[in-house]
Automatic annotation (TrEMBL):
Protein family membership: Belongs to the transketolase family.
EC number(s) recorded for this UniProt protein: 2.2.1.1
Transketolase N-terminal domain location: 14-272
Pfam families reported in the protein's UniProt record: Transketolase_N (PF00456)
The name this protein goes by in its record: Transketolase-like protein
UniProt keywords, alphabetically: Thiamine pyrophosphate, Transferase
Gene: tktB_2
A single GO molecular function term of this UniProt record: magnesium ion binding
Keyword Transferase: yes
Cofactor(s) recorded in Swiss-Prot or TrEMBL: thiamine diphosphate
Enzyme class name: transferase
């Protein structure tokens, strides 16, 4: 008899596989933005294993919800999620970052099925999301736009222009998720530019704001339920831990772009497996 999985358990298993696959991709290359993928795995799993409406065999289906990865360097995590969704093959993940691969280190919409935008010039994702959400509404298309952005992108003026624009147009078909991992390329987010109190800023811009533990699947599921009911744009502020699930990487000082020694990969794999015992299918 096949056990019926709860939504929560299904998403947890997806998040575990996303972490395993991201770690594997990093190992093939010997480096990469592994920490971000591990930290955001639960957010990506909730989106791809529960929230997003899509057709795996038709990535351009007009009725699909659009997931916009504003942070192009998180592509390693998104590729693992796209494999989880069946949009790309798990075997293809091994080509990550190689010449002629459809899976470059920084996401490129023209290369990868299911990749909606080429993020990477940070601070642009939400502006594109606003235009897309407005366009869908004009077309009478009921699809949603979900924009994933980072706490570092809250330093960018364009993000706040977009936030005000979304509110002005009452874009209830737009949800933003912010990965608050407290780190950006130049150092700790709080030291680069103070953005707290973050939730108050979004609320002041007219958004329905919630702040949750971004590594807590149940909290994320509940936040999406509330966000979907809002009649204004909704933001889910997700506090995450970079490297989540692999203590060796969680405690690494230079975590933005990780170099992992050859003998450390086996330790990473083992720590991930042990930490998620009882979760993996
Ligand atoms: Mg960050």
């Amino acid at each position: 008899m096949t056990a019926v999985l709860s939504t929560s358990q299904k998403v947890r298993e997806a998040a575990y596989r996303i972490r395993c696959n991201a770690l594997h991709m990093g190992e093939v290359q010997g480096q990469g933005y592994v920490g971000q993928a591990l930290g955001a795995a639960d957010m990506l799993a909730v989106v791809y294993a529960h929230q997003l409406r899509y057709r795996a065999d038709d990535p351009h289906w007009q009725g699909r919800d659009r997931f916009l990865l504003s942070t192009g360097h998180y592509a390693i995590g998104l590729y693992a999620a796209l494999a989880e969704a069946g949009i790309i093959d798990v075997e293809e993940l091994e080509t990550y970052g190689s010449d002629d691969s459809r899976l470059p280190m920084s996401g490129m919409a023209s290369y990868t099925p299911g990749m909606e935008i080429s993020g990477g010039s940070l601070g642009h994702g939400l502006t594109v999301a606003v235009g897309m959400a407005l366009g869908l509404r004009h077309q009478g298309n009921g699809a949603r736009v979900i924009n994933f952005l980072s706490d570092g992108e809250l330093d960018e003026g364009s993000t706040w222009e977009a936030a005000m624009g979304a509110s002005h147009h009452a874009l209830s078909n737009l949800i933003a998720m912010v990965d608050i991992n407290a780190l950006q390329a130049d150092g700790p987010t709080a030291g680069v530019l103070r953005t707290e109190p973050v939730a108050d800023k979004w609320t002041a811009c007219g958004w329905f704001a919630q702040r949750v533990d971004g590594n807590d699947v149940d909290a994320l599921l509940a936040a999406f339920d509330a966000a979907n009911d809002a009649d204004v744009p909704a933001v889910i502020l997700c506090d995450t831990r970079i490297g989540r699930g692999v203590p060796l990487l969680e405690n690494r000082e230079k975590a933005h772009f990780m170099r992992i020694e050859e003998d450390e990969w086996a330790i990473c794999r083992e720590q991930l497996r042990t930490g998620f015992e009882g979760v993996s299918a």
